[in-house]
Design brief:
By secondary structure, the chain is an alpha+beta fold. It contains 9 helices and 28 strands. The chain has helices at residues 172-183, 229-241, 250-257, 259-268, 285-291, 316-328, 386-399, 427-433, 437-448; strands at residues 4-14, 19-27, 33-36, 38-43, 50-55, 66-79, 85-97, 100-109, 118-121, 129-136, 161-166, 187-191, 196-199, 206-209, 212-213, 219-223, 245-246, 276-277, 297-305, 308-313, 333-337, 345-352, 355-363, 378-381, 403-411, 414-421, 454-459, 465-470. The chain is globular and about 75 Å long.
Length: 472
């Protein structure tokens, strides 16, 4: 028997999953194969766990939706090409190319933004197979017309179960999100991040709260304060492990909160920012200030938020004293160019799902250079320019944020990113723009969390809340 040749892309079928045609990218650099899956819902006993998921096999036709189920054989940490690690369900199923059929393992991951709904890794390639990277479709070509005999359907609308992860359920932003969710028929619960605790290391991960395991949520809206960022990200990862869609992922929140990392990622993407300098050694103090353009400079704690930990040093001597004082406290900080022409004002662009949905101008109070509303700044309506919209979208995308407040400074060279906020407040932007930003956030969740079927809550023998799914 001769060698079985594969091209760098191939058509294949997954007959046991009811998928007669999938276009896959063959990637020998990836060990594990991956299949697009959304709304992943585990079910069945812990001794024989199974998983149900939704797939749109044709990227060009999202109305074609197939519900699949399979036995879970493992949960495995997989690191993506951008460095993010995700705990994924692993299933085993047969793959068919031409007349050849053999079993492979697949991890389930949302590949909605990817060109190929499936990644075919080297572990699925058998010993007598050879991959020719210069050829497409060495095996028989299929097409999505094979799904013609399968009924198309509109995704079933049902109330979502949403967790609002916050320690401040009574502030404006939390109340507006809860009002918006309930107005659209969803069930939303405010969950205190600090009161969550976790069971880790099983095929059925859980989040515990006030002495009992929480029922599964369809989606989580994280409103994690800076003082609890690390623990909040751990809790958010655990919610993600249960299959909940997280409005902003833990990795994206971590990147935005670490100002040094955020600046490095934005700089790598060639997104304009004020000149920023960072050093560890006290011997570098004078040069550090010079790198930031010289006095006046802004000294900013890496963990600063709402204008706290942000100080303006108007002279070189004051800057040197301030830098030395911060080092004496063993604080991590940046030294940043002071943009005088901004005149104490910046523009907040509100991004939802890679779309800028609103903007406002923030003006610092008299005698204050920080424009944060928590520092007495005022907000007013503003018409965003195409350049501002593009920079805001790019900045949120680089950090991986689905919802973000991107603060821009106006300079002679155009808009520059001052900061990207992963938990932007709603009061200022809604008041200034007159838009229902909270409602837009809930609408975005509805588009992302596609329900598999009508669901009703049932109570099992253990007293925990479970789900009985009736697939249409």
């Amino acid at each position: 028997m001769g060698q079985f040749e594969l091209g760098w892309e191939e058509w294949l079928a997954l007959p046991d999953l009811g998928l007669p045609a999938i276009k896959a990218k063959v990637d020998t650099g990836a060990k594990t194969s991956a299949l697009h899956a959304s709304v992943i819902e585990p079910f069945g006993p812990s001794t024989k766990p199974q998983v149900r998921f939704l797939i749109q096999p044709n990227p060009a036709d999202p109305s074609l939706e197939i519900t699949c189920s399979a036995r879970v054989i493992d949960r495995r940490e997989v690191t993506s090409s951008n460095g993010d690690t995700e705990l994924r369900y692993v299933i085993e199923t047969d793959v068919q190319m031409g007349k050849r059929r053999w079993p492979i393992q697949l991890t389930l991951s949302n590949r909605e933004s990817m060109t190929y709904r499936m990644l075919f890794g080297r572990a699925a390639i058998q010993p007598d197979m050879i991959v020719n990277p210069n050829v497409s479709f060495s095996q028989p070509v299929l097409d999505f017309a094979r799904y013609g005999s399968l009924p198309k359907r509109t995704p079933v609308k049902r109330p979502l179960r949403i967790a609002l992860l916050t320690r401040e359920p009574n502030n404006y932003s939390s109340k507006r999100l809860m009002e918006a969710a309930e107005a659209r028929g969803h069930v939303i619960e405010a969950i205190d991040t600090a009161r969550c605790y976790m069971q880790i290391g099983t095929l059925d991960p859980e989040v515990h709260y006030d002495g009992k395991a929480l029922a599964r949520f369809d989606a989580v809206i994280p409103r994690i304060g800076a003082s609890i960022t690390d623990y909040g990200m751990a809790v958010l990862r655990q919610f993600s492990n249960t299959g909940a869609f997280c409005l902003n992922g833990a990795g994206a929140i971590g990147r935005s909160r670490d100002k040094l990392l955020a600046h490095q990622l934005l700089a790598r993407a060639k997104i304009d920012m004020p000149i920023t300098a960072f050093a560890h050694s006290p011997k570098d103090t004078k040069d550090l200030i010079s790198l930031a353009g010289g006095a006046p400079v802004v000294v900013k704690l890496l963990s600063s938020t709402q204008g706290k930990g942000v100080v303006l040093a108007e002279t070189r001597k004051a800057a040197e004293s301030l830098v030395d004082a911060f080092r004496g406290l063993e604080a991590n900080f940046l030294v940043q160019e002071f943009v005088a022409e901004a005149a104490g004002a910046d523009t907040r662009c509100f991004v939802i799902g890679n779309k800028v949905v609103g903007g406002m101008k923030r003006q610092a109070a008299k005698g204050e250079f920080r424009s944060n509303l928590h520092r007495g700044g005022t907000a007013s309506a503003v018409k965003l320019t195409p350049a501002e919209r593009e920079v805001a979208r790019d900045a949120a995308k680089v950090l991986g944020l689905r919802v973000a407040g991107v603060d821009l400074l106006h300079t002679e060279d155009g808009p520059k990113v001052l900061e990207v906020n992963s938990s932007p407040g709603l009061q200022g932007i809604e008041s200034a723009s007159g838009k229902d930003i909270a409602g837009m956030i809930i609408e975005h969740l509805e588009r992302q969390v596609r329900p598999l079927a009508k669901v009703r809550e049932t109570t099992g023998r253990t007293g925990r809340t479970g789900r009985r799914v009736n697939v249409n």
